[in-house]
Backbone:
């Protein structure tokens, strides 16, 4: 295919206007997007990748200033184009797919109407013609039952279906360029796989160039032709996908690939990205902090030990109505789940969204009351405790949440946040000293104590959450998607931290995640959950290398893999 | 401190301080007796003797404003306090309490909303004599449902947050969850509601005083002065302007200060 340059970003520099002057966020970045190719733009949060895509749409926020460079599309500089010109281009020749399909679709219009509107904004066609086109588009994106989908409101569709509707809207006017900003991040792995394949085939079919922005190297590896790596506003390198993964040139790219859990043997410490004295980035396996001899000796679990936590036929069902007239029917969110976690080991629980894994984690702590079943914790049946006994028993458990932005009260200082369990269970005794010790343990400076959560990055906040979780020396830590919201390099640090703490604090983990490679890395045994049931349960190695259940096999095959070539 | 760099906030603070100061020492600086009737100087404009003119009985408007500030501010502050504390408590229970209790509380709030304010005021005056205390209680009661609604919807949002679940997961008691997690995070809409309520309370006081249910003439209050001045718009147009101006400036200043206070209370906004 003769490649023709569609969109070119030349020496683009963008800065944010702040009180103390301009703060540069993109420095002199040049990229070119040719027709028919998929260019992957990889970077971690704060790298400026989303800002790049907004610049390409002429949608820069008001406090962003272009300090140099051009963004050229079809002979026009998008940075200086008039709003009318930009409106005519957007949707028609350049279209965009956003990260969260549920939030990007208008909840009060049917999906069909929204596609029709996208068509009629740019083309003079009758409503019935547009309707026919919309139906056709929904068939193109392989949605099940396109006719029903036309009538459906966004909330009636799943996340994957919504993203297909978004894609249908994006390709409605056969654009030359599609900018996809994290299009699969909010989706389950099996759905992600389908959406990526769809993007790939549409790219072949309509010949549009796709700028695929993501933090996920696996996604890039699956679909992109070329890759550009961006770090803190600087373009580190760009090249063909095969080259970048086989022989990454820049130290940052090398370090980023190395910090993926799939790149290291399970249970080992992950390399993290560090800077040496000269300011050079490098990937390094840092040694674990010194652990006291006594706890190191205790670390090996006696194999015949009674499990710390044993779930027996735990069941929770909800009554839901399909419509206001229908009789409520029973929906079993968690269906007769039995599991056992030996002390000082990690049980990984995997499953896709809606499979009941979060409900299960809340059931174990009785934040949700189970319908039936037993929760045996160290010989005590938690399901039989009364309200006050349960409240006191919660000191032995801690929950680490997925979203470090939501699980910290924005109105409290770090000292108050971390000390909360001490205030609750030990009347605040020895508060300051304990908080200082905990901050040391999770690798945060003691000056953090007087600060508020919003002053920290995502990874640092997750450290605060972990420090709080350990405050009264719990025995079981439930990590519900604890690293899912973090960047790969930060994820590596937090996974290392969890590993170190397991040894130091004698912890037992219930590690819940949708990410197979993370679960494989941390777990001793793995349970696979589907529709409220455990469908496969066994030692981590066996489940991964020799899956028995068809669903486990599907899950494993859907994980984007980076080829063996990249292993070095 | 960032607030000092905002002239609007500074001016508002100055006005509020001035109002409070005048409320304290107003009688000392008033040029005339606010109740002294002068039949020879009815509905006059500004003059050397009467700086802001006189009312329908020839009483000095400036002196009446200076005296009237006390009941006005006292009723506004007291009733807002009653409404804020009562309404917030009911709202939090209505969102965070046991479902049966929450539903009951919110129905009670609905019933309170359905009572006409004047009827409540008549009832209250029937039980107690009219005056600052009973007026404050009545106006406070009238605004309780508004606060309860605001507090309830804000609380419903906050208790869905993970940090509230985190408190439960740590084994926190309900009072701690309310004090540490819910109250600080619903403060913003409540502060805004409070500044609006202060203004509305002053206006309601004027209406009730007008009906003889509040500050009883001849004792002055701003709201009551505005109510009376409406009848003399043709004879002395400035009569209605002065108390209205005082009221408008005070309410505006309180609103601006309320906004600044809300920003200041939020650690996320404080840094920027």
Residues:
């Amino acid at each position: 295919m003769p490649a023709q340059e569609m969109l070119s970003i030349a020496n683009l520099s963008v800065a944010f206007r702040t009180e103390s002057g301009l703060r540069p966020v993109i420095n002199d970045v040049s990229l070119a997007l040719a027709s028919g190719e998929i260019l992957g733009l990889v970077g971690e949060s704060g790298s400026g990748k989303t800002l790049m895509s907004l610049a390409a749409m002429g949608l820069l926020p008001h406090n962003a200033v272009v300090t140099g460079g051009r963004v050229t599309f079809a002979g026009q500089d998008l940075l200086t184009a008039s709003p009318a010109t930009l409106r005519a281009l957007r949707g028609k020749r350049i279209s965009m797919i956003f990260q969260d399909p549920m939030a990007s679709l208008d909840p009060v219009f049917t999906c069909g109407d929204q596609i029709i509107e996208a068509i009629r904004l740019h083309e003079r066609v009758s409503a019935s013609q547009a309707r026919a086109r919309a139906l056709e588009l929904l068939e193109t994106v392989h949605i099940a039952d396109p006719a029903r989908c036309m009538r459906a409101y966004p909330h009636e569709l799943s996340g994957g279906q919504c993203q297909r509707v978004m894609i249908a809207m994006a390709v409605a006017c056969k654009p030359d360029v599609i900018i996809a900003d994290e299009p699969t991040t909010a989706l389950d792995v099996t759905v992600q796989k389908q959406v990526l394949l769809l993007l790939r085939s549409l790219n072949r079919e309509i010949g549009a160039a796709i700028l695929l922005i993501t933090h996920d190297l696996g996604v890039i590896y699956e679909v992109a032709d070329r890759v550009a790596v961006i770090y803190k506003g600087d373009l580190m390198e760009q090249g063909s996908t095969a080259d970048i993964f086989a022989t990454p040139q820049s130290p940052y790219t090398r370090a980023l690939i190395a910090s993926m859990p799939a790149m290291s043997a399970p249970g080992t410490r992950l390399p993290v990205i560090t800077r040496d004295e000269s300011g050079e980035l490098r990937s390094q396996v840092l040694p674990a902090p010194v652990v006291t001899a006594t706890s190191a000796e205790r670390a090996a679990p006696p194999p015949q030990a009674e499990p710390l936590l044993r779930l027996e036929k735990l069941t929770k069902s909800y009554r839901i109505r399909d419509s206001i007239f229908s009789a409520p029917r029973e929906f079993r969110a968690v269906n007769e789940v039995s599991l056992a976690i030996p002390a000082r080991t990690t049980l990984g629980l995997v499953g896709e969204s809606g499979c009941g894994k979060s409900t299960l984690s809340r059931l174990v702590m009785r934040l949700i009351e189970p319908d039936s079943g037993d929760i045996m914790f160290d010989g005590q049946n938690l399901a039989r405790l009364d309200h006050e006994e349960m409240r006191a028993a919660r000191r032995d458990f801690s929950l680490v949440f997925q979203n470090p932005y939501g699980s910290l009260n924005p109105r409290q200082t770090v000292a108050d946040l971390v000390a909360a369990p001490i205030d609750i269970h030990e009347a605040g005794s020895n508060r300051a000293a304990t908080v200082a010790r905990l901050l040391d343990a999770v690798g945060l400076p003691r000056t953090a104590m007087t600060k508020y959560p919003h002053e920290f990055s995502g990874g640092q906040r997750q450290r605060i959450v972990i420090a709080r979780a350990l405050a009264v020396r719990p025995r079981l830590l439930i990590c519900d998607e604890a690293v899912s919201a973090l960047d790969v390099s930060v994820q590596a640090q937090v996974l290392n931290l969890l590993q170190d703490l397991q040894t130091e604090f004698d912890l037992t983990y219930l590690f819940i995640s949708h990410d197979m490679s993370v679960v494989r890395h941390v777990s001793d045994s793995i349970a696979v959950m589907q529709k409220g049931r455990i469908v496969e349960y066994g030692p981590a190695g066996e489940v991964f290398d020799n899956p028995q259940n068809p669903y486990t096999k599907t899950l494993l095959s859907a994980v984007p893999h980076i080829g063996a070539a990249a292993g070095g | 401190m960032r607030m000092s760099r905002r002239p609007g906030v500074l001016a508002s603070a100055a006005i509020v301080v001035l109002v409070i100061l005048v409320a304290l020492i107003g009688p000392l600086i008033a040029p005339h007796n606010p109740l002294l009737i002068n039949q020879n100087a009815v509905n006059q404009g500004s003059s050397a003797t009467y700086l802001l003119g006189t009312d329908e009985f020839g009483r000095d408007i400036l002196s009446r404003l200076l005296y009237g500030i006390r009941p006005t501010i006292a009723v506004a502050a007291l009733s807002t306090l009653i409404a804020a504390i009562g309404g917030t408590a009911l709202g939090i229970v209505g969102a965070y309490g046991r479902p049966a209790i929450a539903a009951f509380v919110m129905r009670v709030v609905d019933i309170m909303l359905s009572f006409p304010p004047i009827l409540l005021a008549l009832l209250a005056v029937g039980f107690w004599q009219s005056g600052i205390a009973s007026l404050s209680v009545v106006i406070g009661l009238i605004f309780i449902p508004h606060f309860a609604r605001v507090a309830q919807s804000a609380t419903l949002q906050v208790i869905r947050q993970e940090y509230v679940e985190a408190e439960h997961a740590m084994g926190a008691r309900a009072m701690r969850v309310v004090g540490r997690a819910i109250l600080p995070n619903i403060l913003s809409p409540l502060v805004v509601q409070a500044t609006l309520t202060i203004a509305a309370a002053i206006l309601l006081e004027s209406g009730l005083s007008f009906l003889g249910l509040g500050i009883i003439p001849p004792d002055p209050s701003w709201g009551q002065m505005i109510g009376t001045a409406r009848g003399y718009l043709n004879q002395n147009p400035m009569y209605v302007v002065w108390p209205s101006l005082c009221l408008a400036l005070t309410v505006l200043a309180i609103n601006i200060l309320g906004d600044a206070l809300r920003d200041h209370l939020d650690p996320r906004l404080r840094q920027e």
